[in-house]
Amino acid sequence: MKLIIALIQPYKLTDVKKALYEAEVHKMTVTNVLGCGQQKGYTETYRGVDQEVNLLKKIRLDIAVNEEFVEPTIEAIIKGSRTGQIGDGKIFVVDLPECIRIRTGERSNEAIG
Amino acid sequence: MENISMETLKMGIDTVWVLMAAFLVFFMQAGFGMVEAGFIRAKNTCNILTKNFLDFCMASLGFFLFGYAIMFGTGNGFMGTSGWFLKGAESGADIPLFAFWLFQAAFCGAAATIVAGGMAERMKFPAYLIYSFIISSLIYPIVGHWVWGGGWLSKIGFADFAGSTVVHSVGGSAALIGTIILKPRLGKYGPDGKPNMILGHNIPLASLGVFILWFGWFGFNPGSTLAVDDGELIGRVAMNTNLAAAAGGVAAMVTVWAWFGKPDLSVAMNGALAGLVAITAPCAFVDPIPAILIGLVGGVLVVVGVVLLDKFRVDDPVGAVPVHGLNGIWGTAAIGLFGQKTLGLEHNGLLYGGGFSQLGIQLLGAGATVAFILISMGIVFKVVDMTLGLRVDRDEELKGLDIVEHGMESYAGFQVFTTE
After folding, report:
1. pLDDT tens track of chain A, all 113 residues?
2. What share of chain B is helix, strand, coil (3-state, %, to 5)?
3. Residue A43 lies in a domain
4. Which residue range is the domain that position A97 belongs to?
5. Best interface-test mutation with B: which of A9, A11, A15, A49 has the largest number of B CBs within 10 A?
6. A94 in a structural domain
7. Which of B398, B408, B409 sits opposite A14 (nearest CB)?
């Protein structure tokens, strides 16, 4: 089992969700985060003064998947979020030793389901 | 103390009255701003407030340079052609020109800003500025001329005391044709046509806005008497205004509660606004109980209007069309039902033994206005669409107009949960 962590552009979330849906991945957790990577930051204006903003708003997706879903999920995320520009984001794949469904007590692969 | 004539004193009192009313109507801009901001998403809030703000600036200037001349200048039955830049212009009431101008200019601003709500969250800012200038300098004044400036509608006995047609159906119809041309927001309607909820981000702001509008309406309607006299008329208009608003709010809440299961505050508030719009035309010509009935019907109409719009996949983010367009027409027609000759109409309304004459005139005027607006503003929007472009592109709409058009955030430092 793997936990896939994806950091994407907020305005791409709609497209990513759609792509995941098409790949039969429906379960996910979405968080607002601030982050920086290679993206140099856009310039904001406040009362006429340009401000460089370095920590940018991103969306973090946490998706727990069984092995056979790892590649399809990664592909779906890329398909939904790739624009070709710096700032598209990153995907981390982390080992997931255990998963439990609270309602039923199921464990492991059935729990991810 | 020098002797002041009674005429001067009367004019002085009337001027203070109209100016105070003008200040109240001006404050309605804040009301519109808060309602519109509250009912849309946070990522577009700066944008709509900027549009609302510039609306009044544009109207103030456009109505000064051209609008007043078209609306109140001498000309023909269609439009006025004298008094450009207010040179040689005349007041439309027994008060000084400038005071009368300010009162009318505030109305102009109100009409223009209605459209911002209907076309919210996906309209290009420069396109909006062009629309705003055109409607305040040309289109609104033309309709105003027909009804209040001595134009063809006033000559056939058409009545609209404070502007259900002149202000609200003008704004509402422009919003309708605009939002149709603009097309719905991304994600508003599913592929099967089912409407999705795009929640307003700040109900407290919206509700503050509604109260500010209600407050400002006490200038909008009673101020349109343009005189204090013995106070009877302004008292009656003010009370009718309040009754209709209250009735509209209750009716809308009951309707949505019965129809959809929960008493929705945003609908109830829109119901109050609907009642206010509906009473705007008849307020001086009806008794209190008809005022309540007019408000009640307005409140129901606004809920029906919202459902109808969704049925036809017309996306109106704040309900500008059901509140202002639909109820502007209803208020205009209501004169033909409940109005009384003794209160200043040409003919008694249908329910007072006057037959269909007044009602027919009212419907003619309402219909002509709506048709004129749909066509003229339709042309304006289409031309802008073909040149500048009316709508932002997909990525811009998803990122939000605040950051894309203005480089600003409305809530910098706050976590704004946008999932669409």
Report:
1. 999 999 999 999 999 999 999 999 999 999 999 888 766 666 667 777 776 667 788 999 999 999 999 999 999 999 999 999 888 999 999 999 999 999 999 998 888 87
2. 70, 0, 30
3. no
4. 2-38+51-112
5. A11
6. yes
7. B398
